[in-house]
Amino acid sequence: MLFSDEENTIQIAPDAYLLKGFLLRHSNTLLPALAEVIKASPLRHMATPNGYQMSVAMTNSGEWGWVTDQQGYRYSKRDPVTNLLWPAMPSIFRQLAVSAAKTAGFEDFEPDACLINRYAVGSKLSLHQDKDEADFSHPIVSFSLGLPAIFDFGGNTREAPKIAISLEHGDVIVWGGRSRLNFHGIRTIKAGQHPLLGPYRFNLTFRRSQA
Ligand code: MD6
Ligand code: FE
């Protein structure tokens, strides 16, 4: 190994860490599991409460899934497209998310939701807070796969200064505690081809949605 785990764990804010390359050795198990989830609950462009269609395509796995429509943002046990429960969270997803949380100092993370975002070239995610979960004492664990992206990470208000973080295939961000409600977003994805995922970036965010 070129670097120790410690050298790959970079603090980006209070209680927020970038785990550089954390998933790199696991593509061969993660990607087939991702494909299975997407087969059961296909990626779709959801509508925001004010009627726009998101440029990012989404689906979920786990007991709960994040959804948005004209009624607002919320967690739902069922996929509104299939009317079935969301596909179970693959055990490789859960194991890696729990292990990443531990590496960042969050010992008892038990995710009940995994939101899957697929970014095509040209898509982006505007600055937002993740605040639809019941208890902000739980962290969020975020996996980056495929094309690279620039992640803007701000503070507790929309206007607070932001840092730009480059996220590549295999990177994980864990954040919680004092940074849990920080504003963040993904800048427009640039054209490219990833050897495993083609012209796409996938992001998996693991959350504890219920108390
Ligand atoms: C993304 N991620 O990386 C979007 N939210 O595509 C998020 O919005 C996010 O990465 C909360 C915590 C980590 C994240
Ligand atoms: Fe977010």
Please explain how this structure is put together:
With 211 residues, the protein is mainly β. The protein has one domain: Jelly Rolls (Sandwich). The protein is built from two helices and 13 strands, in the order ββαβββαββββββββ. Strands 1-2-11-8-13-6-3 form a seven-stranded antiparallel sheet, with helices on one face. It has a four-stranded antiparallel sheet with strand order 7-12-9-10, with no helix packed on it. A two-stranded antiparallel sheet has the order 4-5. A hairpin with a 2-residue loop joins strand 4 and strand 5. The longest helix has 14 residues. The chain is globular and about 45 Å long. The structure holds N-[(3-hydroxypyridin-2-yl)carbonyl]glycine and fe (iii) ion. The site of N-[(3-hydroxypyridin-2-yl)carbonyl]glycine (MD6) has 12 residues, from strand 8, strand 11, strand 12 and strand 13. N-[(3-hydroxypyridin-2-yl)carbonyl]glycine binds next to strand 8, strand 11, strand 12 and strand 13.
